Each structure stands twice: as structure tokens, then as C-alpha cells.
């Protein structure tokens, strides 16, 4: 090895030392950010951010007391929040303070901007790392049941990204849809999860009838309990493998079919889409939310959360499909591939929408 202050040569490869140092610094930042993501998730799940958002500067003991948590753990968590620049610490008084500008992105009081919800994906995915490494070596996939809190997190995600925008942004994508729902139509949500969006629609439009399908028994049980609690008598949730929708004798007709971030992780996405087309009334509309991507790695370099989405795809969306001997399409299948699949399923008119508040998704309005 020979070199000087600017250049190091390893065998036949010349390395720019300044670039190498800069990348090393970036790696340190990545490690710190990954660690902070774990602590953000803890702060969200324990309610510490919500507790501190309503408090003046306080000691760790006072914060722990108000949150109903163990002080020693809270104190160490506050250390991570302090050095991470999330919480302010007054050394003289020994107090900690969550600035309102930070609380706006970390608390449940911000129903559409709570980034701590998304931080939960990091420990969730980390819990299956051993399984994923095994799949890298031997193929196959990791089944849904290995992701213990996935439906919890997805319900929170939907609760702040989809549900609040239904009336104001999503339904207006289809002219006249709100009026039709008010008059009464048949609606199906494919891959409904815990049914947050569908239960909201059922509450808003009591004259319409709603059906939700999902493969998870736990998710369907939760959705049904919420429907009863809300007094929604116009909704039915069923455990159903939506890849079999295409084979059903009489799958409809439904006047509106929705999928909220649910197509790309199916065992056979094209079969699901064909089933949706088969179940749709001639004058019906299929409204699909799915991840914004380009279908090409180089096209996603400027995506604001591209690394996060590809990681979620690799460690959840793709692998749960492969675990069913499926296609393994992945979350980042992208706009081009989505349009190809919608057309192959029999949709002739496809409009692609983007919402100002939603940088993560495309919204597809598909008609026969």
C-alpha cells in the first residue's frame, strides 16, 4: 500500500481519501440515526412524547411519574433523546424539555404528521433479521405470522395517512363517488387489515354496504370488534384469501373496490387484480393506493424515503409473498409495473393521481 494525504492505492484501485472520509462520516450518521429510530419507537409506544408535549421542563423523575414508567429507563431514554438533538436538557436544573416544533412530528396530537409511527417499522423489521438472512442464503420467505406487530403499525399508519384524508382528498379523486356512497352502493376493500379505512367509510355512509377481506384472522377479528363498537351495522369483515377472488362464482358486483397498500405483497398480484376486475360492476370503479416508485432502482434515487421503502419491501412485502410461493413483487414495483398489471387485469381507463400531503403513494383510479 502506498499513498499520501489525498490518495490511497489498494492494489490496482485508487481511492479518494476525502471521499472515503466523507462516506465514513455518513456511516456514523446512519448508525446514530438507526439507533435513534429504535428510541423514537420506544418513545411513541410508551407515550413519552405525548407526556412531554404537555409538560414544562421537568426532571426525569417527574416525567417518569407522569408517564407511569420506570425512572431509570426514562432517564437513559432521555440521554439518547438529548444527544440526538430531539429533547433539550438544562444541565443546571437537570430538566428536560420537548420543544413544540419537535412535538409536532412526534406526538399523537398531530394525527397526520407523527413520524414516530413510522419509526416502529425499524424494530419490527429487525425482529425478523435472522429469518431474512436465512432467506438470503436458502431462498423462500418469512410468513405473516412472524411479524408480531405488523397489523398494529399498519393500522396506525393508515389511521394518520388514509383515514383523515378520505373525505377531503381521496374520495374526490372519483367525481360523483361521494354522492353515490351517500345514496347507497356495494363496496369491497381487498386486503383490509384492521379495517380502519372501511369502518370510517361505513360510519360516513350508512346507506352503503361494505365488505372487507383479509387473510389475517387477528386483523379481521379486530376490525369486526371496532365495527361493533362504532355501531356499524352495514359492514362485514371476512377471512378470505383474496388471490382466490378470481375463482369465486359470484364475487360481486361491487360498485367500488378499494385496496390500500395491499396489492404488491400478495402471492399472485395479477390474479388479485383480475379478481377485482371480475367483481367490479360495469359502472364501478377500482381505487388503489400503492407505493410511489419508478419500477427502476435508478429512478428512485431521489425518493425522500426510498431507502426506508426498499428496506420494508425486502424485509416484509416481498418476503411474505415469497413465503406463499408467490411472485415476490415487492413494495417498489412502481408506476410502470402497476399500469402494466392493471391493464393486463382488464382495466381500460387508468388515471394516476398524486396528493399534496402524501409523498409516499400513487392513487390509481381504474375503470373497466
From TrEMBL:
Q: What keywords is this UniProt entry annotated with? A: Methyltransferase, Transferase
BP-aspect Gene Ontology terms? methylation
Q: Which residues form the Methyltransferase domain?
A: 183-292
Q: Which Gene3D superfamilies match?
A: Vaccinia Virus protein VP39 (3.40.50.150), Winged helix-like DNA-binding domain superfamily/Winged helix DNA-binding domain (1.10.10.10)
Which Pfam families does the annotation name? Methyltransf_31, WHD_Rv2258c
| Range of residues in the leader sequence | none
- Family matches, as SUPFAM superfamilies: S-adenosyl-L-methionine-dependent methyltransferases, Winged helix' DNA-binding domain
* Molecular function via GO: methyltransferase activity
Please name the InterPro entries in this protein's record.
Methyltranfer_dom, SAM-binding_MTase, SAM-dependent_MTases_sf, WH-like_DNA-bd_sf, WH_DNA-bd_sf, WHD_Rv2258c
Q: Does the keyword Transcription apply?
A: no
- Transferase found in the keyword field: yes
Query: Know the name of this protein?
Result: Methyltransferase domain-containing protein
Q: Which domain of life is it from?
A: Bacteria
Residue ranges of domain S-adenosylmethionine-dependent methyltransferase Rv2258c-like winged HTH in the record = 34-108
Amino acid at each position: 500500500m502506498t499513498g499520501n494525504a489525498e490518495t490511497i492505492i489498494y492494489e490496482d484501485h485508487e481511492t479518494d481519501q476525502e471521499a472515503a472520509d466523507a462516506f465514513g462520516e455518513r456511516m456514523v450518521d446512519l448508525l446514530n440515526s438507526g439507533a435513534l429510530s429504535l428510541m423514537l419507537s420506544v418513545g411513541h409506544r410508551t407515550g413519552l412524547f405525548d407526556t412531554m408535549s404537555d409538560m414544562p421542563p421537568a426532571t426525569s423523575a417527574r416525567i417518569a411519574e407522569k408517564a407511569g414508567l420506570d425512572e431509570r429507563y426514562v432517564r437513559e431514554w432521555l440521554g439518547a433523546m438529548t444527544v440526538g438533538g430531539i429533547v433539550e436538557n438544562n444541565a443546571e436544573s437537570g430538566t428536560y424539555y420537548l420543544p413544540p416544533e419537535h412535538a409536532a412530528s412526534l406526538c399523537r396530537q398531530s394525527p397526520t404528521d407523527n413520524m414516530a409511527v413510522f419509526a416502529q417499522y425499524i424494530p419490527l423489521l429487525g425482529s425478523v433479521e435472522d429469518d431474512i438472512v436465512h432467506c438470503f442464503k436458502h431462498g423462500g420467505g418469512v410468513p405473516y405470522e412472524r411479524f408480531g406487530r405488523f397489523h398494529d403499525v399498519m393500522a396506525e399508519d393508515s389511521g394518520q395517512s388514509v383515514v383523515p384524508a378520505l373525505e377531503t382528498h381521496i374520495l374526490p379523486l372519483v367525481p360523483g363517488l361521494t354522492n353515490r356512497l351517500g345514496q347507497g352502493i356495494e363496496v369491497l376493500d381487498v386486503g383490509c387489515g384492521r379495517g380502519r379505512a372501511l369502518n370510517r367509510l361505513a360510519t360516513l355512509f350508512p346507506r352503503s354496504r361494505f365488505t372487507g377481506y383479509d387473510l389475517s384472522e387477528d386483523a379481521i377479528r379486530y376490525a369486526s370488534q371496532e365495527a361493533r363498537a362504532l355501531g356499524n351495522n352495514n359492514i362485514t369483515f371476512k377471512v378470505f384469501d383474496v388471490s382466490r377472488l378470481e375463482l369465486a362464482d359470484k364475487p360481486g358486483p361491487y360498485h367500488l373496490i378499494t385496496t390500500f397498500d395491499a396489492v404488491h405483497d400478495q402471492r399472485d398480484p395479477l390474479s388479485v387484480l383480475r379478481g377485482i376486475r371480475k367483481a367490479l360492476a360495469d359502472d364501478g370503479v377500482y381505487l388503489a393506493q400503492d407505493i410511489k416508485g419508478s419500477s427502476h432502482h435508478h429512478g428512485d434515487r431521489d425518493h425522500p424515503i426510498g431507502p426506508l421503502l426498499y428496506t420494508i419491501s425486502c424485509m416484509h412485502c416481498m418476503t411474505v409473498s415469497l413465503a406463499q410461493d408467490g411472485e415476490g413483487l415487492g413494495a417498489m414495483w412502481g408506476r410502470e409495473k402497476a399500469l402494466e398489471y392493471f391493464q393486463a387485469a382488464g382495466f381500460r381507463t387508468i388515471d394516476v393521481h398524486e396528493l399534496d400531503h402524501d409523498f409516499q403513494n400513487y392513487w390509481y383510479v381504474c375503470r373497466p
